[in-house]
Amino acid sequence: MVGWRWRAARWGPARFAGGAAIWNRGEDRAPRYRGCPFLNLATEFPDQNHPGRVIARDNKEEMRARLATIVAKLGVRDPNRTASQIALIINGAFVTGLMAEPADLRRDLIDAAMKLLA
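Structure (tokenized):
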């Protein structure tokens, strides 16, 4: 978790979204990687009040809040909404990267994030 916090703060949202694509493509991860452990945790425990689900939700909210801080520094009109949209893109990349050949996923993620920041 420390790794993504550092990257989000240092890289900014567009490059961070692209980093999620690299991770899912396997350039930076172990061969047995099966996606975001927090998304997996939320999937396994559908009860909204289950402790595992609470941990997963808290993690995703922290990522979104950190993105909102970064986006606000860029002068975006609605940083909370933009951060939520970028988080949606990142979370989608975790899933897409496991199911498809993501040859252009990194470029598409950066392009989508940049459109949100325009």
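The helical segments are 2-11, 13-25, 37-44, 51-73, 79-99, 105-117. The mean pLDDT is 77.
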